[in-house]
Specification:
By secondary structure, the protein is mainly α. 54% of the residues lie in helices and 0% in strands. Pfam families: HTH_3 (PF01381).
Length: 114
């Protein structure tokens, strides 16, 4: 645990972990480096500590945080795996697709016989 913080009890550590997970899931617009920095700060970990927990090198994590490297999917899954998360693929809706998907059925087109 980062020496700048007081030692936390296990329940306090678990609460920080839940907060970190909820924050990352609530902010899908964050880049991976932003998410990693947030996780590290919220959980009161140093870069070296998070790297050790994730099973990656200090330098690799440091490069990801500084946006010198994007990291591989495997590496990011190791980092996120510390919290029980992993990268996934989702469909991105463009503005026109989003409007069509959220429009009520009656607005799809003219009714028959018009």
């Amino acid at each position: 645990m980062d020496k700048r913080y007081e030692t936390l009890t296990l329940p306090q550590q678990l609460e920080l972990r839940k907060k970190a997970i909820n924050d990352v899931l609530a902010n899908p617009q964050w880049s991976l480096p932003q998410a990693v920095r947030h996780l590290k700060k919220t959980m009161h970990l140093t870069t070296a500590e998070l790297a050790k927990l994730a099973g990656i090198s200090f330098r690799t994590l440091q490069d990801i945080e500084r946006e010198k490297s994007e990291g591989t999917v495997q590496t990011m899954n190791r980092v996120l795996g510390v919290l029980g998360l992993k990268l996934g693929v989702v469909r991105v809706l463009h503005d026109d697709e989003f409007r069509a998907a959220s429009a009520p059925e009656s607005a799809e087109g003219p009714e028959d016989g018009a």
